[in-house]
Amino acid sequence: MTPADRAFALKGLDISREHLVRVVHGLSHEQLEYRPAADRWSVAENLEHVIVSERYVLGRVKGLVQEAPDSSRQSHWEGRDEPLVRTVAERGVDRGQAPDAFLPIGRWPIEQLVPEFEAARALSRAFVASTREDLRRHFFRHPVLGGELDGVQWLLLIGAHCYRHGKQSEEVIASPGFPRHAERAAAPRPAERELHPV
Q: Rounded to whole angstroms, how far apart are CA atoms 50 and 159?
């Protein structure tokens, strides 16, 4: 990775982590499990999906570097890292399109979700901070966006995808039927700042 690629990926990981942790902070089990509609995920389900997806992507990228680089191939988003990140972070993909393997199914108890997320993110961050591989010459296909992405772009998507599901979780919390508890309303919120990953 180039220094610029590394810095951009680390920024996305750190900002999206801060955002998601802020969103879920102080939520009760009831609030974490609340679904605004039958076809919408709860905050807990969004978090589970983020963990599963992040672990998978990191594992695939680590596997890529065991293979020979391929200069004959090209990313579908060649030279468009920032638009790719914005596409996933801001618009995301249509709800309900997650591949079956990434659907939330209650893999962990509610109280274990944040520690599992933090552990997954620590591994992702450590890899991004330390890898010396030329990830721009390693590729695999995105099942929803279409086309191949290079290894750097896949690492960028970890942060962008997490950020998008943090925003979806905020939508759940803002929904009219969301259970309100006095302790969350009264708790001081961390200072807001620009949290966009780009």
A: 10
Interior CA angle at 69 toward 63 and 71, to 5°?
140
Model pTM score: 0.88
- Residue 190 domain-assigned? no
pLDDT of residue 174: 96
Domain containing residue 177: 3-183
Nearest to 154 by CA among 167, 143, 165: 143
Model pLDDT for residues 102-126, shown as the tens digit of each residue: 889 899 999 999 999 999 999 999 9
Q: What amino acid is encoded at 22 in this protein?
A: R
- C-alpha to C-alpha distance for 143 and 124, rounded to whole angstroms: 21
How many domains, in total, are found in the chain?
Answer: 1
| Residue 189 lies inside a defined structural domain of this protein | no
Task: Give the CATH number of the domain where residue 17 resides.
Answer: 1.20.120.450
Cβ atoms of 197 and 81 closer than 8 Å = no
